[in-house]
Amino acid sequence: MPKTRLEKIEGIKDEIDQLKNRQRLLLQQHNVQERKARVHRLCRRGGIVEKLLPDLIVLTDEQFDTFVEKTLLSGYAEKILKKLVSQNGENATPALTITEQSGVPSEAAKPTEQQRQAS
Fewer Cβ within 10 Å of end Cβ, the chain: N or C? Predict the structure, then answer.
């Protein structure tokens, strides 16, 4: 028995709803996978930092933040990071620099004593 146009339209709407639900489910699965990968990466890298600098374990979160800002936001650290990122290939998309992410100017961006006296 042939379907009427209205029945065909309803069938297509049902298919669209099923596809939207499938898309939502796949996006949720993707987000879970991405989140797990991020947590794994953060734990692994945090473990490396604590292994190399065991004294960091006793610091408070505030002290750790200060340590990271003073060490990783230096001009020297940015140069090393840029060099390592460039080694990953030209196809890598450029991310924000450390200072752009934090909003804290790096040591290289701060004026020297001579520059301050000149102005």
Answer: N
